Amino acid sequence: MGVDSSGITLLSGAKRLGVDFTRTLTLGRQEFFPRRSELKDVFKHMGVQENAEDFLRANGYADGFFRLLGAQELMSLDYSTYEGATIIHDLNEPLPAKWRETATVVFDGGTLEHVFNIPQALRTCMELVTIGGHFIQVTMANNFLGHGFWQLSPELVFRTFARENGFETSVVLLHEVISGGRWYQVVDPAEAKSRVQLCNCQPTCMLTIAKRVARVEMFSRPPLQSDYQAAWSGTSDFAPVYAPAPSYRRMVPEFLVRALKPLVRDWSLFGLGWDQKYFRRLDAAAVAQGRFTR
Question: What is the CATH number of domain 2-288?
Answer without folding.
Answer: 3.40.50.150
